[in-house]
Design goal:
By secondary structure, the protein is α/β, with parallel strands linked by helices. The chain has helices at about 10-25, 40-45, 60-65, 75-80, 120-130, 165-180, 215-225, 245-275, 295-300, 300-310, 325-330, 335-340, 345-350; strands at about 30-35, 50-55, 85-90, 105-110, 135-140, 185-190, 205-210, 230-235, 315-320, 320-325, 360-365. α8 packs antiparallel against α12 (about 335-340) and α12 crosses α13 (about 345-350). The chain is elongated, with a radius of gyration of 31 Å. It binds S-adenosylmethionine.
Length: about 375
């Protein structure tokens, strides 16, 4: 039989499998044990449900190679998302108990267990299923029955593998672990066998373990008191609109952008009108959105404007060398409303950051742009 070649490559199929599972179950806190070069973590940072991501590996150097890819990008500061996201990398062994990893919804162990020595493998279930006890555990490992279909594989697929299990061996280990720690396990995999070799099963076998019942708060509190053993080697706190500092920045930027946009379109209209007709505008039919005459409005002070517009007209108006845009008008813009939630919040966010009229009701944008 022809040696099998996977498209997309098998490792990408494994990552895709985890991503699909995350999209389906929407965990908030995900930890990847034996994260290696952080490739899966990098893909998971784009999953919108995840707010906390952690990676653990015994090999600090491997993790450090690409950990910078987990830092926020400049565009993520310019346009922060609503979702908070913290990514942390720890150096440590998966057979050490550390409370940093308590309370996670999903723990993934992709191509990890076959790298564990016999005594580590024996200690692994008590740490992951007994101590960390997440809602879901995903474990992938090579299916040794597939090896004969892979080019160049003699004993194991990798020099560092301590063992490789066939389907029955993995099922037996995983089922025992599930029963012992109160989980239900289902088996699947990625890397389909070629036609005619279906009995071999998937190239990568995967067990999905789901906790039968939640732990009591007492047990979690008790575990939290355990000493930390992991070394934190990387931490990235992503900018989020849930942080008032970033929300204020976003609101102020949006308000200034919208105010300038309104001012520009208004000012261009005025200049066009003035260039085309220099007669008294009061006698002309006015093209202002509010129906007010441009020149007339130019000479009004703010109080007069308010008197004129007794029901608080929300259209922009001219005051001296500035265009004043009522906050009510800005609040009607969907993006502004979405960011602020309430009109009171809009006022709170822009006060002291944006030039306002004396009564605080409008944003003031200067028309002194050199074209006057
Ligand atoms: N999960 C990653 C992936 O799929 O791309 C990397 C898998 S790599 C084959 C196995 C990783 O497990 C290595 O990075 C290795 O350093 C790590 N590892 C081995 N023994 C470990 C242990 N006791 N604790 C934590 N990580 C371990």
């Amino acid at each position: 039989m022809e040696p099998v070649k996977f498209t997309p490559p098998l490792y990408k199929q494994r990552y895709q499998f985890v991503k699909d599972l995350v999209e389906k179950h929407k965990p908030k806190k995900v930890a990847d044990l034996g994260c290696g070069e952080c490739s899966l973590l990098w893909q998971l940072k784009f999953c919108s449900s995840i707010e906390v991501l952690a990676g653990i590996d015994i090999n600090e150097d491997v993790m450090k190679e690409k950990m910078h890819t987990l830092s926020p990008l400049p565009c993520e500061y310019l346009q922060p998302s609503w979702r908070p996201l913290v990514i942390t990398l720890y150096q440590g062994s998966v057979v050490q108990k550390d409370p940093y990893l308590l309370g996670f919804d999903m723990i993934t162990c992709i191509e990890l267990i076959e790298h564990l020595e016999a005594e580590e493998l024996a200690a692994f279930p008590d740490v992951v299923f007994g101590f960390l006890a997440p809602t879901m555990v995903v474990i992938s490992t090579p299916n040794s029955e597939f090896n004969s279909l892979l080019p160049g594989v003699k004993l194991f697929r990798h020099l560092d593998h301590k063992f490789e299990w066939n389907k029955e061996e993995f099922k037996s280990w995983a089922s025992d672990v599930a029963v012992c720690y109160g989980y239900t396990v289902e088996f699947t995999g990625v890397g389909k066998p070629p036609p005619g070799a279906e009995d071999v099963g998937f190239c990568t076998q995967i067990g999905i373990f789901v906790r039968d019942c939640v732990e009591t708060a007492d047990i979690v509190t008790y575990k939290m008191a355990t000493d930390h053993v992991y070394k934190t080697i990387f931490k990235a706190v992503y900018p989020s609109l849930q942080d008032e500092k970033y929300l204020q920045y976003a609101v102020v930027s949006e308000v200034l952008y919208q105010a300038h946009r309104i001012k520009t379109s208004l000012w261009d209209g005025i200049k066009a009108k003035e260039n085309g007709n220099n007669q008294c505008p009061e006698k002309e039919q006015c093209c202002w959105p509010s129906g007010h005459c441009v020149t007339f409005l130019r000479n009004l002070d703010l109080r007069e404007h308010e008197k004129l517009t007794e029901n608080r007209d929300i259209e922009p108006f001219i005051h001296g060398n500035a265009v004043c845009i009522p906050l009510e008008k800005l609040y009607l813009i969907p993006r502004v409303k979405q960011l602020c939630g309430t009109f009171a919040m809009l006022i709170k966010m822009i006060t002291g950051k944006v030039a306002l009229t004396i009564d605080g009701s409008s944003v003031v944008v200067s028309t002194d742009d050199g074209s006057e």
